[in-house]
Amino acid sequence: MGENLDDVGPDPIDVAVGHRIRVRRKWLGISQSTLADHLGVSFQQVQKYERGANRTSASMLVRIAEKLETTVGELVGENDRPTGDESLFEKLAVPGAVQLLEAFASVQQPSLRTAILNLTRSLIEETEEPAQKRAR
Fold first, then answer.
1. Membrane-spanning residues where (predicted)?
2. Separation between Cα atoms, residue 135 and residue 75, nearest integer Å
3. How far is CA 118 from the centre of its chain?
4. Residue-wise pLDDT tens digits, 100-116
5. Alpha helix locations (H) across 43-106?
6. Does residue 20 surpass a pLDDT of 60?
7. What are the distances in angstroms from CA 81 to CA 14, 22, 86, 95, 108?
8. How far apart (Å, rounded) are the C-alpha atoms in residues 97 and 102?
9. pLDDT bucket at 84, cuts 50 / 70 / 90
């Protein structure tokens, strides 16, 4: 029998569009509820769009782009140019990433920014070491 598409998971294109919606919404400081009210859907539906769990129709993309002060082309990645880091949108879509970046950017002292980076790296190393030991 044929493969059931529901078992495969969200289409990577839908996920990428959802990431762009989420990053843009968070960048503008718009809540999921506010966007949902504008679209006439529940905030849970906005969550599904942002995860790529539900496909976003063309008419909905137009309404979303309007509220997020951008174009449908931007949301679908039409204007994306390859960069050194292709996963930037994925990283910015991680919950808290935009807020962390904004907080980091507000730090005025270079030495304090360096200390924050070093602390973050050491925390990551600490969480990776137990995982590597378990894998052995």
1. none
2. 39
3. 24
4. 888 899 999 989 999 99
5. 43-51, 58-67, 72-75, 88-92, 97-106
6. yes
7. 18, 19, 9, 24, 31
8. 9
9. very low
Residue entry with tokens 């039409």: 78
Q: How confident is the model at residue 45 (pLDDT cuts 50, 70, 90)?
A: very high
- 78: which 2 tokens? 């039409």
% of the chain at pLDDT higher than 90 = 44
CA distance 121 to 55: 36
Top pLDDT among 1 and 97 is at 97
State both tokens at 89.
């949108």
State both tokens at 71. Answer: 């174009």
Give the number of residues written for the chain: 136
